[in-house]
Amino acid sequence: MSLRSLRTLPLAAAAILLSQPALAHEQADVGGGLAAGLLHPLTGADHLIAMVAVGIWGAQLGAPAIWVLPITFPLVMAFGGVLGILHVPLPMPEVVIALSALVLGGAVALRLKLPFAAAAAIVAVFAIFHGHAHGAELPGSANPLAYGIGFVVATGLLHLCGIVIGTLTRWPAGERIVQGLGAIIALLGGYFLLHSLGASA
Amino acid sequence: MRRTLKHGLIATALLLAQAPAAEAHIVAIRLGDFYAGALHPFTDLQDVLLWLAMGLLAGSLGAARGRWLVALFPLGLLAGLALGARVGTIAANPAIDAVIAVVLGLLLAAGARVPTVLLCVMAFALAALRGAANASDLAPNTDRLLFAGGLACAGYAAITLIMALTLAFRGPLSDSSKDSSKDTSKDWRGIALRALGGWIAAIGLMMAGLAFAS
Amino acid sequence: MIDLRYLRIALLLVTALILPRALFAHEATLGVLEFREVRPGAFIGLWTMEPTVGADRVDLKVPPHCFLRLPELNCGEKGLVGQITIGNLGADMSAALIKIIPLKGEPRSYTISTANPVVTVLGTDAPTIDTWLELAKTYINYGIDHILLGADHLLFVLGLIWIVNGGWRLVKTITAFTVGHSASLAATAFGLIGVPERPLNACIALSIVFVGVEIVKQQRGEIGWTARYPWAVAVTFGLVHGIGFASALAGLGLERRLLPPALLFFNVGVEIGQLAFVLLVLALIWAHRRLDAVLPRWGEALPAYAIGSVAMFWFIGRLLIVLST
Known about the structure:
The complex is a heterotrimer of chains A (about 200), B (about 210) and C (about 325). Chain A is an all-alpha fold and about 200 residues long. Chain A has one domain (about 30-200). Chain A has helices at about 5-20, 30-45, 45-60, 65-85, 95-110, 115-135, 145-165, 170-200. The model of chain A is unreliable at about 1-25 (pLDDT under 50). By secondary structure, chain B is an all-alpha fold. Chain B has one domain (about 30-170, about 185-215). Chain B is globular and about 50 Å long. Mean pLDDT of chain B is about 75; it is low at about 10-30 and about 175-185. Chain C is α+β, with helices and mostly antiparallel strands. Chain C has a 6-stranded mixed β-sheet with strand order 4-5-2-1-7-8, with no helix packed on it. The chains are: A mainly alpha (about 200), B mainly alpha (about 210), C alpha+beta (about 325). At the A-B interface, α1, α4 and α7 of A face α1, α2, α3 and α9 of B.
């Protein structure tokens, strides 16, 4: 061990210690993915109103729908999303999505009290179609995991909005407001339905 | 004998003489890798999501069951990191992460009463997997001991805090057999936690779909 | 005979102590780069002493608003304000001296070395808002870095939290520690007091040993000094730790005229880091209580002994350094 090599040891050590590994990560564009996922369910008006309507209807139906729906809804929707990602074709997605707003809005406006299983089945079918639409439109560039997180969180929050609006039904006046909202959603859904029928015709 | 002694003395003296000069500043920089290890998992969405899911699940099961994770989780991370560093970096498999997220999310959403032993095994396995994934960031010049220390500290702090917060949010757990007869609709905190489980499972499902699509 | 042998060893030791510095002096890895301002914001840079690796191979990085193509350096209206660093400092080039000769004011020199790889240039004009922001950013970061990387300071704070056990008393104790180290940091930075660094480091380690002993005492049911007068202990040891902070600040090569604000920002950074640490520890203590995850009876004294042992290890190591020079 010569003096020279000994002397360079601390220097080399210092050099090594100083060049700390950059924290930069291969997770490309997390922010972009999150933003895209968050915004995607919010920017399509047909999606947005249908999601809120599901929440309101669940709240109207009361137990067990009010607590089963928030737990299972994102799951079913993600299932639809996976179908969309894998490009499994579904019949007339545009029409069914517009129809969902009409049906769900109508159910809220009419305070339709279906048995839980029937209501769950209706919601599940629509959820799969909505998820499918989001999954099929998944932007290729953004970070997929971040997109998924943003997408699920945004959907869940919309759902939560619906539930909060739905709790207004505890008061008679609130009940009216909720029904009015349901009617508006149904009307919008009808408009989208006509639009999509016209477009596909 | 005399020669080796002499050489040893020279070497020691040299090192001692160098140490103070270097020490003043290198001491300050020496711990950098500790923070690299501690911060690395938080830059990785997979880690954030899975750690959160694990902490939520353990916390929702109550203090008696979750408590063991305080020690087991960081130990699992260390084991995984050691394995990852030894075997060579294991390519992170998004499909496995997705399946784990789905399983953890579903268990939380279903409100399953996972037995303590199973919970511990799951936590250790998850931690080991994530520890191995974190080993990919070990550069050749990283101080492994410090990096591992940082990672273990981060794991310990994160899992402990998430569990405690979940527990505090959940409130005292009703372990009685009357659980089902109680009006569940009023227990909105429990529902909120289970809904969160549904979200996590949904995210996992989408991750799985993306993993299979690509 | 024996005397001669001792003499020989002593001689060897002396040479060994002197040698490394002598060898350092021989090495011409030091480069000197001179920037002369020719128009406001525009500089001509020349290597007055070229580093042995060759001037072309030096990866010089200037503030982002500046444009560098040697010999030209153009910084526009903002002037040469910001961080200068060399990307490829290493064993073959250990340091560089950067000399800046402005149109107005006195020339200044900065040393970039592995120990101090980034220098912050703050301009010669009356401080503008940019200067202040740059100064604040730099020194708050230094402060945070310093406390977070200073395991000894953090261990001491941990010991204090352990003994005082939360509540209003903890707020007072931590404030007392802050007052103590701020006062001595300022006093040392302005040169009012000067304490050699190495004995001081040993003292800092000893202060942590003291806290460890106090924790053990408390667990045995004795009421120690720290439990009775936590603020007094905190202020006293705060003074010691503050001198330690100052020596770190001194290593950053600060300009005299910017010392007061830099000191303030550095201290702010230290407090931010310390507060974050205290909050994290308190959150973890709360979490442990919530989870009922406490050490069994036989292991209660373990953390105190761990703190004490680590600190004692440091103390012995630092004492050896003091004695060896």
